[in-house]
Design goal:
- This protein is mainly alpha-helical and 621 residues long.
- It is 60% helix and 5% strand.
- The chain contains 29 helices and 9 strands.
- Strands 5-6-7-8-9 form a 5-stranded mixed sheet, sandwiched between helices. A two-stranded antiparallel sheet has the order 1-4. A two-stranded antiparallel sheet has the order 2-3.
- The longest helix is centred in the first third of the chain and has 28 residues.
- The chain is elongated and about 105 Å long.
């Protein structure tokens, strides 16, 4: 008994702390591959984190603030205008360490992503305090979802909705960086206004930014194509060929870092010679972020105090959209790479690892915190799984989640020692990195596939895609609403097969829940009670797995009508769970059989009996 208890304790510990499953088997080979993968991902994560900070709107502009926290041109505004891009790096390292302990996928990397940054930009209004509070609340909400087992809510976000959102997000994010490629300023954030003013201000484009941005784009595209055309490594190939292949693969893998470093060197050279050809990132905060409790209020330069409740009210729908999308994106990526690399992940544990929360099981396990809550203590904005960096991690041959530790260390080293150099990073180079990062998300093969397989699914895809150009969060809500309406219609109007065997037979193909009540009643009246002549009915319920009280009440009324008209209603093929409910309801003249054939035989006997004893006495003599 004690041995069994010990086994259960060990299994519970490994479930809450997956690191205990792989750490005892860790060796030098794993360490070597994890270091290589961690360094590669780190060199990709640093430039992407810097770039995604702008997508999130963390360069502050007065026009992006809502009325409840409008900021005057004071010291606070000036400080935030300059200290901008480091927030992407603040968000890039915490998940690396957390996921190593609590994650179940060896490939996934957590950090800022294009989609999450775009979603956040609509709610934080460029205010770092709002971003940090959103991170904290996002983690708390996701914690509540995990503890209450609400992960099933993600099942209501269908594939067409996800694809419609990601395609629209890719277009929105990509076009949003065109202004930085052209060196344009004062371009609104709203997509349609952004398109108009970008084309309107093309004559104001800066030649230096255009040339540098196009060169960066050309290099990134060429490196991507070269990497995609590389075939699998052949052991029999000459060493020179293998070395050349490895060199091309390495350069293509760290292409983002190479572009940013080269562009920074060019910009630095022009600045020290007194030529200001490029729009630069600007001054950034130096050093590591302080580890402190997240701010729950904010005092503006004019003395106005924004309370926690005001911040939460301004965040509004973001407190629902961002936690759900964060979990959805991370679990989807983890499952995709788990399937590709032949291992399974624990979705509930992924929820724990992605969202920092306290987990207390019935065994009184040690409480464990997860990424977003802890990230709020280092001024991070919400993070989730990154498909691009996860792909790099997998392709580099990572063996365990320990590769994330190396990635996190590289980000921390960048914060500690390289922040002054980030001043000279041209915005055009970061824009090129973002455009190339989101371009694979624009998968317009999906609508063609939907048209070929099931055209009705194009409706939620198109609703999500088109509405997302107005506001991305409304696109998701609109797509989910349309999908829900389609699902409710299917529930309310299930397919019913009607056949005639001398009596009417209705074969139901789904559960009997309250939306179907009126439809079912109408069919019964049409094919049985109000038919000409009226006839008995068999309800084939072999596909019915659930039933609720509203339907039971309607069946009770129908059975009374059958009783009044002298007809019979027989249920066939009832599942035990449904039969139990109907027996408990004490329905009048309730008859049931195991199959339709038995029901037909029973009805034949009943009809024959009624005909025999309904004849006049003189006829019988």
């Amino acid at each position: 008994m004690e041995a069994l208890t010990g086994i259960r304790w060990n299994a519970a510990l490994r479930s809450c702390f997956p690191i205990l499953s792989w750490l005892p088997r860790y060796n030098l080979t794993c360490a070597r591959m994890d270091v290589i993968a961690g360094v590669t991902v780190g060199l990709t994560a640093v430039p992407q984190a810097l770039a995604y900070a702008e997508v999130a709107g963390l360069p502050v502009q007065v026009r992006t603030f809502t009325s409840s926290h409008t900021l005057s041109l004071g010291k606070v505004f000036l400080r935030r205008c300059f200290f901008v891009f480091q927030y992407g790096l603040y968000s890039a390292f915490m998940g690396c360490f957390i996921y190593c302990i609590f994650g179940t996928s060896k490939d996934i990397t957590l950090g800022p992503t294009a989609i999450m940054s775009l979603l956040c930009s609509g709610y934080i209004g460029g205010d770092p305090v709002f971003a940090v509070v959103l991170t904290l609340l996002c983690g708390v909400i996701q914690a509540g979802m995990a503890l209450l087992r609400l992960g099933f809510l993600l099942d209501f976000i269908s594939y067409p909705v996800i694809k419609g959102f990601t395609c629209a997000a890719a277009v929105t994010i990509g076009f949003g960086q065109v202004k930085n490629i052209l060196g344009l300023k004062e371009i609104p954030q709203q997509f349609f206004l952004q398109v108009y003013y970008t084309f309107h201000k093309i004559p104001e484009a800066r030649v230096g930014d255009v040339i540098l941005g196009l060169c960066c784009l050309f290099f990134l595209i060429m490196m991507t194509l070269m990497k995609n055309t590389l075939g699998p490594a052949e052991d029999e190939a000459p060493s020179l060929v293998r070395s050349a292949r490895g060199l091309v693969w390495s350069i293509a893998t760290i292409r983002n870092a190479l572009v940013v470093v080269a562009a920074t060197a060019v910009a630095y050279s022009s600045e020290v010679t007194g030529h200001h050809f490029f729009s630069l990132t600007g001054k950034t905060a130096k050093g590591l972020p302080p580890f402190k409790a997240p701010p729950l209020s904010e005092t503006l330069a004019n003395g106005t105090v924004i309370t926690f409740s005001d911040i939460a009210k301004d965040l509004g729908g973001g407190l629902a959209v961002i936690p759900l999308m964060g979990v959805l994106e991370s679990i989807a990526i983890a499952k995709a790479f788990g399937s590709q690399n032949n291992y399974r992940i624990d979705a509930n544990q992924e929820l724990f690892a992605i969202e920092y929360k306290w987990v207390v099981s019935h065994h009184n396990d040690v409480p464990a915190g997860l990424t977003n809550i802890m990230g709020s203590f280092v001024s991070a904005y919400p993070v989730t799984g990154s498909f691009g960096r996860t792909a790099v991690n997998s392709q580099t041959g990572v063996r365990t989640p320990a590769g994330g530790i190396v990635t996190g260390v590289i980000v921390l080293l960048s914060l500690a020692f390289l922040m002054p150099l980030f001043f000279f990073i041209p915005k055009a180079s970061l824009a090129a990195v973002i455009i190339c990062a989101v371009s694979p998300m624009m998968d317009f093969r999906v609508p063609v596939q939907l048209w070929r397989v099931k055209r009705l699914d194009l409706v939620p895809f198109l609703v999500t895609f088109l509405v997302s150009f107005w506001e991305v969060q409304y696109g998701i809500v609109g797509g989910v609403a349309v999908s829900a309406l389609m699902l409710l219609y299917i529930m309310a109007r299930p397919k019913v097969k009607v056949s005639d065997h001398g009596v009417a037979v209705l074969e139901l193909d789904s559960g009997l829940n309250f939306p179907v009540t009126e439809h079912l009643s109408r069919l019964v009246y049409t094919h049985s009670l109000h038919a000409s002549p009226p006839r008995c009915l068999v309800l084939d319920c072999c596909h019915v797995s659930s039933i609720d009280f509203t339907v039971v009440h309607e069946l009770n009324e129908l059975l009374k009508q059958f009783q009044l008209t002298g007809l019979s209603l027989i249920f066939a093929g009832l599942k035990p769970s449904v039969l139990k409910v109907l027996l408990t309801a004490d329905l009048p003249v309730f008859r049931h059989t195991d199959s339709v054939d038995e029901a037909l035989q029973l009805l034949t006997g009943i009809i024959h009996y009624d005909q025999q004893f309904s004849q006049p006495i003189t006829d019988q003599i």
